[in-house]
């Protein structure tokens, strides 16, 4: 319990800063909606000049940016990217920070099992994500409602929020696994950005080529906002795949951490 609370307190500053970044991005984009939607004909004419592959890669091939739900579809693709970076950074750092701060020997000398350390830190990570998603949903929905409340589909907005959390869970599994697999991580951000943008680029290629096989390789393709708008439900096979990757990577991480030689310096 002490490890869990201490870890959560240590991550509060990062939690608040990334959540603020998401909210600022959302408010900035949502404030521009009426300006963009004011001249639908001009907007459609401009977008018509772009190749479909280009529009697909950037998330506005199958939606209308002059309609609030389509605009949210475009906007949330970037909100999810920020959330993915945060969850990856958080999960990579919680275990590797003990080595970087040279406190690993102190922690492991306490009467606590290694699996308990991983569980406590993982619980802190999940709590941070739950808090972040509650804040994002609670602050973004009223703002969107003020802009175009009569047209917003509440079920769709809830699915967008759920997709953010599910993508973050995928990167929690990746992050924890990377942190126990590598002997020492000198800096978290290069690893975080490298992994997240690798998956994001795969998604951009996938949306351009519409290659079904690539869909399974990246969580950004599991819950496409445009598909959520048209179907108004998650595809359960992708939910199962997302949670399955998380579960398998966590099991591997527990096993590796139990046998890992951990040095304080």
The share of residues in extended strands comes to under 5%
Q: What is the share of helical residues?
A: over 70%
The overall strand count is: 0
State the separation between the terminal residues, measured CA to CA: 26 Å
List low-pLDDT spans: none
Secondary structure layout plus pairing:
Blueprint: H1 2-10, H2 12-31, H3 33-37, H4 40-48, H5 52-57, H6 68-100, H7 104-108, H8 114-148, H9 154-181, H10 188-209, H11 212-215, H12 225-231, H13 236-259
Helix pairs in contact: 1-8, 2-6, 2-8, 6-8, 6-9, 6-10, 8-9, 9-13
Structure description:
The chain is mainly α. It contains 13 helices and no strands. Helix 2 packs parallel to helix 8 and helix 6 runs parallel beside helix 9.
Give the gist of this structure.
With about 260 residues, the protein is mainly alpha-helical. The chain has 13 helices and no strands.
């Amino acid at each position: 319990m002490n490890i869990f609370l201490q870890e959560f307190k240590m991550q509060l500053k990062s939690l608040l800063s990334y959540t603020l970044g998401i909210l600022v991005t959302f408010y900035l984009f949502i404030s521009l909606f009426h300006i963009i939607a004011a001249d639908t004909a001009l907007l459609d004419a401009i977008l018509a000049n772009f190749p479909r592959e280009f529009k697909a890669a950037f998330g506005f091939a199958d939606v209308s940016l002059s309609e609030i739900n389509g605009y949210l579809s475009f906007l949330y693709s970037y909100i999810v990217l920020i959330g993915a970076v945060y969850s990856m950074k958080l999960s990579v750092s919680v275990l590797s920070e003990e080595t970087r701060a040279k406190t690993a020997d102190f922690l492991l000398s306490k009467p606590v099992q290694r699996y308990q350390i991983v569980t406590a830190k993982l619980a802190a990570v999940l709590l941070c994500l739950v808090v972040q998603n509650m804040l994002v949903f609670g602050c973004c929905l009223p703002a969107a409602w003020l802009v175009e409340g009569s047209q917003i589909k509440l079920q769709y907005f809830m699915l967008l929020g759920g997709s953010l959390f599910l993508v973050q869970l995928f990167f929690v599994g990746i992050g924890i696994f990377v942190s126990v697999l590598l002997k020492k991580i000198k800096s978290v951000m290069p690893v975080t950005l490298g992994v997240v943008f690798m998956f994001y680029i795969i998604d951009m290629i996938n949306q351009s080529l519409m290659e079904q096989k690539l869909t399974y390789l990246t969580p950004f393709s599991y819950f496409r906002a445009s598909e959520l708008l048209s179907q108004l439900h998650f595809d359960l096979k992708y939910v199962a795949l997302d949670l399955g990757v998380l579960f398998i990577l966590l099991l591997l991480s527990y096993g590796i951490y139990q046998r890992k030689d951990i040095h304080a310096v």
